Amino acid sequence: MLQINSNITAEQLASKIKRLFELSEKKILSIENTWEKSRGTPVFTVEGKYTVRGWTEWTRGFQFGSALLQYDATGEQAFLDIGLNGTLDHMAGHVSHIGVHDHGFNNVSTYGNILRLIGEGRIEDNGYLAEICRLALKISGAVQASRWTPLTEHLGFIHSFNGSHSLFIDTMRSLRVLALSHSLGHALMGEQDEKISLLLRLLQHAETTARFTVYWGKGRDSYDIRGRTSHESIFNPKNGSFRCPSTQQGYSPFSTWTRGLAWAVLGYAEQLAYLNTLKDEEFKCDPCIHDGDKNRWIQRFVAAAEATADCYIACTATDGIPYWDTGAPGLAMMPGWMDRPADPFNDFEPVDSSAAAIAAQGLLHLGSYLNRRKPSRGDHYIQAGLTVADTLFAEPYLSVDKNHQGLLLHSIYHRPNGWDFVPPGRTIPCGESSMWGDYHARELALMIWRIAESKPGYCFFATIV
After folding, report:
1. In terms of CATH architecture, what is 11-452?
2. pLDDT tens digits, one per residue of 324-347
3. Among 19, 117, 125, 248, which has the highest number of CB atoms less than 10 A from its own CB?
4. Where do the structural domains in the chain lie, given as residue ranges?
5. Is-contact 141 133, C-beta < 8 A?
6. For residue 45, what is the enclosing H or E element?
């Protein structure tokens, strides 16, 4: 269980964050100078060098988005050029990609960050750049929302690349592209010019996820623990009935893949902050939105965010770094693993630092939101997020080797498929990085740095709403 440092502050992490971005500079330039774009998208490292892994190209936005975050933190033009050119040259296909549930990862990390930086006055708009980004985000949100499986009771979900039967927990974080598209005034146009609300689909997907993929400790099955998540939920698309929990990247449907849990923590917490910016009238535009009751949705998202955040805090090691799955079989060989710091070099099960980087953002967003509603209500979550960041921004998780292209070490992609590199002489993967882990480490660092310097908060919708 995470041992929360109640005294740590964002200001105390400033020196670690400065070092992180100093190391990050060399990592980004190394990838830019050596990566052949024709190879596709870098996904994770093998012996310190980024390589591809065919499944879906969901990490390209993190590649160019990382350069944009580096520019945000340092103001160095070279990284803005990498991020801008990479986005304009290589991301258009991801805007119109009808086969994936990953639009919020790829396109918000690129077009979204560019538009945010323009809105903050950090980038000069040349007369068309902002409009390109707005158009890309509008279309991306609509394309993402079109991957729709309708259910009964005004529910439905954006289905994963597995097909119309499959709901992934990951998509909670990808919903942010629907939020941006909606706030830019866009809608999905259907048959006979039916205008489909992107806000409605966002809400329905989040509710379906909360109902079937998040557990509430109410006896749904023998493994019903409040706040835990299954990676995948399976439905019968013929009649909309729920069939069973499942998983692709976790150990089993009845254990918790911790990166999936982290996606839920961050996804619900971010959307809470977003929904709070919307006017009550926007919830009254469609009778399916619970009779237009905005507060009912807020309460539901608070409940889901707190449940998943509490589960993360309870099922991780004392330093805030989780093992890749709470039911991973090798943990039985590590008695007391939750009562001490995580050991990325153990002989039984790998940790997943990328899950920690994602969850820490969610904890900070949740805590900040709750504190705006009632002073001190969210302090527990803020301190938890800072505690996790304090661990991540130092060795053995921060990559200080100038020859290693990764920034955040000990990230895991797909343990069941055996995709992750196992160093010679070891029995489990360790010492490697991933595009999503590196991106979210930078995003987490930037978020905390802005808090430390009393600058406007970092959030995906900051300059849209």
Report:
1. Alpha/alpha barrel (1.50)
2. 999 999 999 999 999 999 999 999
3. 117
4. 11-452
5. no
6. strand 44-46
